[in-house]
Amino acid sequence: MSRNGKVLVAMSGGIDSTVTALMLHNQGYEVVGITMKTWDYATSGGGKKETGCCNLDSFNDARQAAVDHGFPHYVLDIREEFGDYVINNFVEEYMAGRTPNPCVLCNTHIKWSALLKRANALGCDYIATGHYVKVREENSRFVLSKAKDLTKDQSYVLWGLGQDCLSRSLYPLGGYLKTEVRQIAYDLGYEALSKKAESYEICFVPDNDYRGFLKRNVAGLEERVDGGDFVLADGSVVGKHKGYPFYTIGQRRGLDIALGKPVFVTKIIPETNTVVLGEADELQQSEMIVGGLNMIKYPSITDGMVSTTKIRYKDAGAESILYNDEEGMVRVKFDHMVNSIAPGQSAVFYEGDDVIAGGIIRRGLN
Question: Is residue 204 a contact partner of residue 211, using CB atoms and an 8 Å limit?
Answer without folding.
Answer: no
